[in-house]
């Protein structure tokens, strides 16, 4: 029985075995891997991933990864496939079959149908001489020297290796497609990345009751405008509608500390940061975030030509 103090040793051993299993896959990358990438990339159909048990769980994750990186994909359960779900297959589809032993009975039963109903089969196994590997058009090896399980029974290192190799396959295909962040965003509109790449600044900017003062505005009125605006800043506009500068609550605090005796005799132009950074309303949120990070600021004035439209702040984006 393992004592509590030995738990970290057990965990470290598990991580070490699985890490070594992944690293060992690098030497298994061969022409079969290259051909499999090209095969999946060239298909005019979808990538159908299938597997039983733990391999099936890995297969469901890989189907999601491929789908979100530009390769339409779904998981097909072998037991359901033989009872009607084979009808999901189309002639242009490519099948990726996962089985570490390469001898999974439920999978082997449908291999002839998978090959007949699709454009081809890629197998990922730990045994290059297995029935599944020999039946496939291309075979990707994921053999590991041992499982992390102390009895060398429970699929641990082998499933990790299969997952990692599947990810490597997905990313290789993704790079062949020249899949860009903006493409990724289209499949993840509800996520943070999708929001930043698809949402325009005008969609989230603050536009009502903007705190705007002129350069001649007394500091007391500047403080009042900032308090009323509740944005921690005011826009300074001297002539016309274009912004001249910006004053943040930090600018106010620094002015109070450095010019305490004359603070209330100051005007907005005395403490403003000139040439305030602006951004157009059509710009995406990621561009606004990049500009703020680059200049180490927390807000941008949204401007269309000479017209001030609003303010976007960093916490609106993150």
Which structural traits does this protein have?
alpha/beta; 318 residues; four-stranded mixed beta sheet; Rossmann fold; 12 strands; elongated; CBS-domain; 46% helix; five-stranded parallel beta sheet
Concise summary:
The protein is an alpha/beta fold. Helix content is 46%, strand content 16%.
Biggest β-sheet description = 5 strands, parallel
Our count of domains comes out at: 2
Give the number of DSSP strands: 12
Taking all Cα atoms into account, the compactness measure Rg is: 30 Å
- In whole angstroms, the N-to-C terminal distance is 48 Å
In CATH, what is the class of the largest domain? Alpha Beta
Structural category: alpha/beta
Overall description:
- Helix 14 (285-295) links the parallel strand 10 (278-279) and strand 11 (299-304).
- The strands form 3 sheets. Strands 2-1-3-4-5 form a 5-stranded parallel β-sheet, with helices on both faces. A 4-stranded mixed β-sheet has the order 6-7-8-9. Strands 10-11-12 form a 3-stranded mixed β-sheet.
- It has helices at 7-24, 31-42, 53-68, 78-81, 105-117, 131-135, 157-176, 181-187, 192-198, 201-204, 219-229, 249-258, 268-271, 285-295, 314-317, and strands spanning 47-51, 73-76, 94-98, 120-125, 138-141, 212-213, 233-236, 245-248, 273-274, 278-279, 299-304, 307-313.
- It contains 15 helices and 12 strands.
- The longest helix has 20 residues, at 157-176.
- Helix 1 (7-24) packs across helix 7 (157-176), helix 3 (53-68) packs parallel to helix 7 (157-176) and helix 8 (181-187) crosses helix 9.
- The protein folds into 2 domains: 4-179, Glucose-6-phosphate isomerase like protein, domain 1 (Rossmann fold); 201-317, CBS-domain, CATH 3.10.580.10.
- 46% of the residues lie in helices and 16% in strands.
- It has 318 residues and is an alpha/beta fold.
- The model has no long low-confidence stretch (mean pLDDT 88).
- The chain is elongated, with a radius of gyration of 30 Å.
């Amino acid at each position: 029985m393992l004592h509590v103090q030995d738990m970290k040793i057990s965990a470290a051993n598990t991580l070490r075995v699985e890490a070594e299993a992944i690293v060992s896959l690098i030497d298994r990358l061969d022409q079969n891997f290259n051909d499999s990438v090209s095969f999946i990339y060239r298909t005019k159909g979808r990538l159908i991933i299938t597997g039983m048990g733990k391999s099936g769980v890995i297969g469901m994750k890989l189907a999601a990864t491929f789908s979100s990186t530009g390769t339409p994909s779904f998981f097909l359960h072998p037991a359901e496939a033989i009872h009607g779900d084979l009808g999901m297959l189309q002639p242009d589809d490519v099948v990726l079959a996962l089985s570490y032993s390469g001898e999974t009975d439920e999978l082997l039963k449908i291999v002839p149908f998978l090959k007949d109903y699709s454009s081809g089969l890629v197998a990922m196994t730990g045994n290059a001489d297995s029935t599944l590997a020999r039946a496939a058009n291309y075979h990707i090896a994921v053999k590991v020297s041992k499982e992390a399980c102390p009895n060398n029974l429970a699929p641990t290192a082998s499933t990790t290796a299969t997952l990692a190799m599947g990810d490597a396959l997905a990313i290789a295909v993704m790079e062949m497609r020249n899949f860009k962040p903006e493409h990724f965003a289209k499949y993840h509109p509800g996520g943070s990345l999708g929001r930043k790449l698809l949402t325009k600044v005008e969609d989230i900017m603050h536009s009502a009751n903007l705190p705007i003062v002129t350069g001649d505005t007394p500091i007391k009125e500047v403080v009042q405008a900032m308090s009323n605006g509740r944005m921690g800043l005011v826009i300074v506009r001297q002539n016309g509608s274009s912004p001249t500068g910006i004053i943040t609550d930090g600018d106010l605090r620094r002015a109070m500390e450095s010019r305490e005796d004359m603070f209330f005799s100051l005007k907005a132009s005395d403490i403003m940061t000139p040439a305030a950074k602006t951004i157009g309303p059509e710009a995406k949120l990621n561009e606004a975030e990049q500009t703020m990070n680059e200049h180490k600021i927390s807000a941008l004035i949204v401007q269309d030509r000479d017209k001030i439209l609003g303010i976007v702040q960093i916490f609106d984006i993150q």
